[in-house]
Request: fold
Amino acid sequence: MVISDDALAQTYLNRIGYYRLSGYWFPYRQSSGAGASRIVQDNFRSGTKFSEVVELYVFDKKLRLLMLDVIERIEIALRVQITLELGKLGPLAHRDPAALHPNFQRPAAPGSAESHHSKWLRLHDEAFARSKEEFAKHFKRKYPGEDPPIWIAAELWDFGSMSVLYSGMRKNCQTDVAKLFGVPSFQIMETWLRALNVTRNICAHHSRLWNKPNAVPPRWPSPSDCPDLGHVATDTHAKTRLYGMACICAFLLRTINPNSTWVSRFKAHAATFPNSTVVNIASAGFPVDWDKANLWT
Reply:
């Protein structure tokens, strides 16, 4: 690896860490074989520059911030709609098995006496009990021993708990929420929420994002149901990498805030991908001329 400034390189290694940076220079290592028999070697490809690896790291850092920004907006908007939908069934509908899907009462794990719903409630109640938020302290002081109604309880849901509750809602309620965001089915929405939660956690824990495959591949609507997502409907690589998640975010954001500048900011940042002969943005699932698709224009 070419290191043009030893002192600067040492500074980066001290601040970022050798093994954290090694995830970004992994594609620069020489390899032999292909597919499952591919062996990555210890030597770097000719011309590998430490400065280029750092540029890739910085690109990914800014990318994570962009994704956190849009996922936060999606999380808040979804939380409101789930609260409104369940709130129609009662102020404590999130606690009422009769207001939720029967499958939510199945065991959370094989042989467990705790159902998915009771596990969700336990984690929710623990979060409420330890919350230092003013609204939580006020409720506990004014209504000791009582359970908070859904419009208060929802403020303590993170993306993961929200997605679990969505999966436990009645199918008609799930469908109504999905349709509000232009998603053609509750099955697709369920997988989107799970995939978005994984992406959010990667970003929140400052892990590498740009070329990492999705741990939870989202289901994809047909081009006839969602024409603006049709340009990658048959592109498995695009759908299972960052680009697919960005497409989902851009699609949902159209309903949440059609005047948002996030799409233009995302396109502008993608254009700053480091100039390299080894790595390219296609590794993150970006197809050729992606920015000319209707979703991004």
Summary: The CA atoms of residues 231 and 293 lie 7 Å apart. The radius of gyration is 22 Å. The mean pLDDT is 95.
